[in-house]
């Protein structure tokens, strides 16, 4: 349950269910109570009327004219019954016919008793003292029709409540989704940031998440500033070392050093090493890597530029460089990093190719690039040495051996992989570079 929308929906849904169940119970209970109170009020009125019609003899016998009570008490099993008791006599309504009035408990609280014909009777018992004699009057009414009506009302009300509850849940879900829509914008912005389409998140968000977005943007800016300072510092250091390096190179050709060939050779080797280190660090200083937002590389457009440059460099050889790249392919990486990476690979392929170089980029997540040529290739036992710093397998070509080492640095910087092999298509050397996309 990591989703805020799921938590909010579950909480509101359960709250509504509990609320509506409680409401149905309260309303049903209230309606039944009001109905019972109304019936009890009517039974009390009938008991008072019966009391007014009762006369008692001196010996406690009841003198009562049945014609004076309501006609409903004369209909057999009408659902309206009474029982008048004194110490020596009792009279029951004719509506009981040949049935006895159900046994009841003394007391003023209403009672539910089983009556004739399976009726459920609501009974009240009133105690009076009239003409010096104790008189008990029990009045009952069939509550079965009202129970059925209450049951129907409860069912209808429950159905209506369920429908209303479902509509409210849908409405609340819509409101919750609409209220959390700005968070969806933040998620979309983060994805666009990963793809290099934007350099910061929009800050037109709800107050609750605005501090988080603002702090995130601040950290992005701090990271960008640190990268620029690091690049600047490494670049300044490398350029500062070039001046004394130039002096050392000039010393190599001085008369004093030329008189000592061994010293001149050592000096030339050390200055060469220093120059390699400076060049490599300058290139590393330009790496942006996957941690920098707002960067995007479009292989289709950029590789065409690389091919145009390489055809000018190797124009006299008439190389054919083929590109198989999806037109809308893009990758969230720094353009300079990618040009350095694939420029080295293409340059290496052009150096060794006889006539053809093939670049293939499938339409897969991340960036997968295969560079093949129809040159002599490389034996399997020597391929592992290719990415070693300064390592060259053929000293007859120009270069200082840093190309593939720089390539490896960039691939590692982007947490990718690089494999060397033999091209099945062209028969020469093959390099596969895989740079993962954003998770």
Nutshell version of this structure?
The protein has 439 residues and is an alpha+beta fold.
Keywords:
about 450 residues, alpha+beta, Heat Shock Protein 90, five-stranded antiparallel β-sheet, five-stranded mixed β-sheet, 10 helices
What does this structure look like?
This protein is of the alpha+beta class. The protein contains ten helices and twelve strands. The strands form three sheets. It has a five-stranded antiparallel beta sheet with strand order 4-3-7-6-5. A hairpin with a 6-residue loop joins strand 11 and strand 12 (429-435). The longest helix has 50 residues, at 4-53. The two termini are 21 Å apart.
Mean pLDDT: 83
Run of helices and strands: HEEEEEEEHHHHHHEHEEHHEE
Number of strands: 12
Radius of gyration computed on alpha carbons: 50 Å
Give the termini separation. Answer: 21 Å
Largest beta-sheet characterization: 5 strands, antiparallel
**Large-scale geometry:** rod-shaped
- Work out the helix count: 10
Portion of residues in helices?
A: 40-55%
Widest beta sheet: strand line-up: 4-3-7-6-5
């Amino acid at each position: 349950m990591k989703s805020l929308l799921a938590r909010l929906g579950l909480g509101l849904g359960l709250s509504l269910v509990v609320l509506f169940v409680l409401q149905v119970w309260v309303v049903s209970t209230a309606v039944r109570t009001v109905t019972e109170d109304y019936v009890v009020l009517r039974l009390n009125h009938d008991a008072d009327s019966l009391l007014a019609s009762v006369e008692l003899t001196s010996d406690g016998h009841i003198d009562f004219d049945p014609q004076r009570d309501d006609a409903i008490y004369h209909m057999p099993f009408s659902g309206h019954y009474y029982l008048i008791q004194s110490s020596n006599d009792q009279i029951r309504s004719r509506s009981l016919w040949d049935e006895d009035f159900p046994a009841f408990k003394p007391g003023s609280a209403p009672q539910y008793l089983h009556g004739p014909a399976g009726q459920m009777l609501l009974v009240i018992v009133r105690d009076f003292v009239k003409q010096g004699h104790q008189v008990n009057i029990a009045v009952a009414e069939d509550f079965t029709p009202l129970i059925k009506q209450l049951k129907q009302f409860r069912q209808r009300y429950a159905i209506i409540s369920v429908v209303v509850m479902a509509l409210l849940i849908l409405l609340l879900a819509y409101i919750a989704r609409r209220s959390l829509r700005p968070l969806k914008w933040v998620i979309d912005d983060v994805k666009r940031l990963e793809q290099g389409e934007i350099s910061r998140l929009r800050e037109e968000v709800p107050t609750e998440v605005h501090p988080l977005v603002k702090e995130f943007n601040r950290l992005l800016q701090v990271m960008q500033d640190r990268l620029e300072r690091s690049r600047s510092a490494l670049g300044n250091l490398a350029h500062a070392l070039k001046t004394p390096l130039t002096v050392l190179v000039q010393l190599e050709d001085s008369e004093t050093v030329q008189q000592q060939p061994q010293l001149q050779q050592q000096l030339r080797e050390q200055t060469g090493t220093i120059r390699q280190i400076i060049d490599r660090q300058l290139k590393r200083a330009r790496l942006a890597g996957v941690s920098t937002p707002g960067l995007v590389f479009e292989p289709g457009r950029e590789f065409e530029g690389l091919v145009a440059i390489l055809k000018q460099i190797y124009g006299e050889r008439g190389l054919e460089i083929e590109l198989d790249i999806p037109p809308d392919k893009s990758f969230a990486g720094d353009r300079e990093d990618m040009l350095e990476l694939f420029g080295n690979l293409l340059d290496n392929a052009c150096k060794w190719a006889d006539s053809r170089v093939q670049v293939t980029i499938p339409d897969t997540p991340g960036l997968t690039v295969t560079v093949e040529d129809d040159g002599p290739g490389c034996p399997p036992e020597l391929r592992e040495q290719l990415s070693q710093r300064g390592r060259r397998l053929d000293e007859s070509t120009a270069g200082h051996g840093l190309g593939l080492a720089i390539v490896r640095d960039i691939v590692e910087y982007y947490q990718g992989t690089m494999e060397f092999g033999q091209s099945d298509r062209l028969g020469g050397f093959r390099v596969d570079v895989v740079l993962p996309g954003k998770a």
